[in-house]
Amino acid sequence: MRFVSAPARTPVLPVVVAFCIGLISITAASAESQLDRAYKIIAGKRFVDLTHSFSPDTPVWSGFGQAKMTPAADPKTHEPYTIAKEGFRATFYEMVGQYGTHVDPPAHFAENGITMDKIPLKQMILRLVVLDATPLLAKDANHAFSLTDLRAWERKHGRVPKGAFVALRTDMSKDWEANPQRFKREPFPAWSLETIKVLFEKRGATAIGHESMDTDTTDKMDSETYILQHGHFQIEVMDNLDKIPAKGALIVVTWPKVKDGLGFPARAFAILP
Questions:
Q1: Closest CA relative to residue 64, chosen from 184, 211, 178, 144
Q2: I need a labelling partner for 64 at 20 to 30 A (CA). Which of 36, 100, 140, 237 fits?
Q3: Residue 84: which H helix or E strand, with range?
Q4: Tens-digit pLDDT profile for residues 159-169
Q5: How many CB atoms lie within 10 A of CB 170?
Q6: What does the alpha-carbon distance between residue 267 and residue 46 come to, in Å, rounded to a whole number?
């Protein structure tokens, strides 16, 4: 009887494991290099702050009242903490969430809307579109940016991209510190409801922003109600929109993660193309 030995075979499992490890390493290296390239690109761009500084004297809706900012004190002695005595100092803030440049989450107007801590992280960095209403204000200082205005903008700059953050420039921000009383005027330039509906229903916008303290040119709050009750957030009291191109920039916006929060001062900035 003859015995024929089988040809030697390389164990399958070690080969598969080695292949998977190699594939993971290549994928990880590729991801790292992509992020590294993205960072280098972004780091070389110009950043523009879209956020106002705020203080106890900051313009705010009269129904909320001014903020109070006092030195934080020891609850037992009521003596303020100081660098000289304790080695640190802190501030106690007492203010409404809708103060200064701030975020309005859906729950601000919608009973079952998401709160600010539930807004997805991916919605905090978006393509930024700026609609310039300033040429229209000479004839109508309280102009509501209309669907006709939007179509004229799109003929010049192209369709508003899906998923964008759409900001309305009115240059009201220039009065924030220079003329606070004028900044608080009513009425003021803002959005029209028909434009808001098209931006979200037809263009697929993710969020909007504006320089005024409210979304609407009237006290009916139709536009703001629509936005928030349809699951979108907005940023109010924006700054420096006159320094941003119509298209091509990115916006980064964030805020403290307050549990069940209904609004809070936000920090927003643009990365220019």
A1: 184
A2: 140
A3: none
A4: 999 999 999 99
A5: 25
A6: 17
Residue that has been written with the tokens 């006290």 in this structure: 219
Residue 91 to residues 56, 71, 94, 162: CA-CA distances in angstroms?
12, 5, 10, 41
Q: Which residues of 55-74 are buried (b: 16+ CB within 10 A; e: fewer)?
A: eeebbbeeeeebbeeeeeee
On the question of pLDDT at 4 being above 50, the answer is: no
Answer whether residue 3 shows pLDDT above 50.
no
User: Helix or strand or coil: residue 154?
Assistant: helix
Q: Give me 102's structure tokens.
A: 């701030």
Q: What is the Cα–Cα distance from 128 to 47, expressed in whole angstroms?
A: 13
End-to-end CA distance of the chain: 81
CA distance 91 to 80: 9
Q: In whole angstroms, give the CA distance from residue 202 to residue 123.
A: 19
Q: What is the mean pLDDT of residues 49-64?
A: 97
Give pLDDT tens digits for 165-202: 999 999 999 999 999 999 999 999 999 999 999 999 99
pLDDT(17) > 60: no
Tokens 């801590």 correspond to 117
E-only strand ranges, 133-266: 144-145, 165-169, 190-191, 207-210, 233-236, 249-254, 264-265
**For residue 232, what are the CA distances in angstroms to 79, 108, 118, 150, 164?**
44, 11, 12, 20, 12
